[in-house]
Design a protein that fits this description.
The chain is an all-alpha fold. It is built from five helices and no strands.
Amino acid sequence: MPGWIRLPLAYLAAVVIGGLATTILSTQIVLQYLVNAGAVMPLEARMAATLADLTGFAPTLILLTAIGYLIAFPVARLVSHRIGGLRAFGYVLAGFVTLMVMIYAIEVFYQAVLASTITPIGSGRDLWGLVILGIGGALGGAVFARLAKRVR
C-alpha cells in the first residue's frame, strides 16, 4: 500500500484505538475509586458505565487524541530519525506522553481559565490515574508504529 494512503490510515487507526482504550481505562479507574470508597460494582454496572462513556465521552477524547497525535507523532519521527533508531518505542512514548499531557492540560485549563475546582476527568486525578491513561495513548502509538511502517 502506498505511503500516502498507509500513513493517514495508520494515524486514524491509532487515534480511534488510543481514544477508545483511554476511554475504557478512564471508566475503570473511576469505578475502582468508587470500589475503594466502599461501593459494590457488579460487572453489569461496569459494562453499563463503559458503554455510556464509549458513547458520551469517547468522541471528545478521540478528537483531543487526534490533535495530540498530530503534534506528537511528527516529533517522535523526527527524534527517532535523528538518533537513528528506536522508531517504535518513540511512537509508543509519544502516545503515552500525549494522553498524560492532554489530561493534565485539561485540568490546568479548568483551574486557571475557568477558576473551577472540579476535576473534569476524574480518572486523571492522581499520578497513577494519569499513568494508566497514558497506557491507552501508548497503545495508539504502538498501533501507529506497526501500521505506518517506515515512509521515506
